[in-house]
Every structure is written in C-alpha cells, then in structure tokens.
Amino acid sequence: MHHLFGIIPIPQPLQSRSLVYDLKARLDWGKPALTILDVRDRVLFNASHIVGAISMPADELIDRALASLPLNRDLYVYGETDEDTALIASQLRTVGYRHVSEIRGGVSAWKAVGFPIETVLTAA
User: Fold this and answer.
1) Which of 39, 73, 102, 106 could form a disulfide with 85 if both were Cys (CB 3.0 to 4.6 A apart)?
2) Any coiled-coil ranges, and where (predicted)?
3) What is the gyration radius of the CA atoms in the chain, in angstroms?
C-alpha cells in the first residue's frame, strides 16, 4: 500500500519571476538541476546568502556564467534590489540564457520566511 504522505509535489515550471517559496519548492524537490546566482558584492554574499547560492558579482557575472553554465541551465538570480535583479536577468537573457528567474525580494525575503541561509567566515 502506498502512502501519499511525505511526497513532495512537482513544482511549477520556471517562471521569469519567482517567489522564495517557488525556489524552496524546487530545492526540496531536488530536480531538475538549477543554479542560484547571488550577484551582490562579495561582502554582502559573505554576510549572508541563500543556501547553495554561488557568488557571481554583477561586474564579472556574464563572463563567468558563459564560461561555466550551459545556456539551458535553470538559473535563479538575485541582487540587492529587485531592480538590480531584473537588470542582471535581462543581461543573462540577452547573451542566450533561456531559463532565468528573478527571485523577488532576494535574500531578505528568503530570511524573512525563515528559510536557511549561509555565511562565509573570512579572516580579519
């Protein structure tokens, strides 16, 4: 006998804008593969970021993304503000990324609902 308890529902397909809940559902589901890009400067990234996010500051983002991420990869992006996020997402789409989603509210919204964050300890 199969129980439906504990089965995680399949998340919605990637949208051009996502709420933190949408990303969390994707992470909990575990597939298909995705990459979370934090485009804020490294000091802010080190202070706190969404668990699993990769630091790719805006000034080096496009070159680094093209060198390491396939154009068909699902990318979730956030910056300091939703305006920054929208600008970066637009740049990623312009260079050929087809699956880019802007995380509304970024790390602040993520923390506000109690989802886990990471910090990077740096030597003083």
Assistant:
1) 102
2) none
3) 15
Residues 56, 44: contact at Cβ < 8 Å? Answer: no
> How many domains in the chain?
1
Q: Is 93 inside a domain boundary? A: yes
- pLDDT digits over 27-37, tens only? 888 766 899 99
Considering the domain boundaries, does residue 3 fall inside one? Answer: no
CATH of the domain at 113: 3.40.250.10
Strand order in the sheet with 99-103: 17-18, 99-103, 74-78, 34-38, 54-55
How does the average pLDDT of the chain come out, rounded? 88
pTM to 2 decimals?
Answer: 0.85
Q: Tell me the per-residue pLDDT of 56-90, one tens digit each, with 9 for 90 and over.
A: 999 999 999 999 999 999 999 999 999 999 999 99
Domain-located, residue 9: no
